[in-house]
Amino acid sequence: KMSHYRNTAWFFFKGIREYTSFCLYDSSKKKKRKEKEKMLTMLTRVFKETGANSGTGKVIALEIAKRGGAVHMVCRDQKSTEEIQAEIVKETGNEKVFVHILDLSEARKIWDFSERFRKDHETLNVLINNAGCMINQRGCTAEGMEMNFATNTLSTYILTTSLIPLLEKSEDPRVITVSSGGMLLYLQSEKGHFDGTMVYAQTQCQQVVMTEQWSQTHKTIHFSVMHTGWVDTPGVRSAMSNFYSSVQDKLRTPEQGADTVVWLAVSGAAVKQPSGLFFQDRKTVSTHLPLAWTRSSSEEQTFMKKLEKLANSFKPQ
Fold first, then answer.
1. How many beta carbons lie within 10 A of that of residue 92, not counting itself?
2. What domains lie within the chain, and their CATH numbers?
3. What is the pTM of this model?
4. How far is CA 171 from the centre of its chain?
5. Active centre residues (catalytic)
6. Residues 191, 227, 258, 26: is their CA dihedral positive or negative?
7. pLDDT tens, 269-285?
8. Angle 159-161-163 (CA atoms, 0-180°, nearest 5)?
9. Whose CA is closest to 76, among 111, 48, 51?
């Protein structure tokens, strides 16, 4: 109990210091970030982003389209996604913005979607796993999976592993997973007790483990996982209303939150960093709080084997 309260308090003060709009502004002011940073040629590059129709996801898609890249938006709601697609095309003049409708909580549909995409496309340079959810009440998908786990962990695993063969055939392939500083709070929930915030934190920690493990087994792909900071998005407002009310004047804009994702996706400097690291504000940071629980290599490998077995149970025969 004490470690839980200690870590929660530590994380909150760390967040105020590092995740808010004030500290980003202060940091960027000190560093005088160079807007003239050399970007890779985007005209022939293909990007796929989940959750690309709102918040930081929308900004990420827009920024990539501005640079001339082909953007495949993978989202659940067709109407809103097509509206955002039209906005991006109109603003950028880039017609290479495509919509794919997929519910990431449905594992079988992800396998089917990826198989079709591999057949229809010869190239995928960058996969951005941006979609996520925080469900505060226990609930299961039609396939029997807890909703947070299905959307944040299992879908990320299936989509990424099923697209690795296509990524490996493409030039300068990258996989970026948008996680959260909340993964620093990971504690196993008590048996029989459901805490949506802690379950969410657990899935974020699992995303870090997946990224680290993939980087060791797929050396030709640059993997990274990152935290956007505390961003004012529709998801934060609905899933964390009390938190939002207490810090809303300090939250980052979606544009500020998207900055590091876009940098990881398009910058030549990003891939000079080792694969498998956790990023925040274009810098690598630790994946655990001081004095907090840490993972062992054997635990990570066991987790990946269990996840592989579970994912494959939904794979079409």
1. 19
2. 41-314 (3.40.50.720)
3. 0.83
4. 22
5. 200
6. positive
7. 999 999 999 999 999 98
8. 65
9. 51
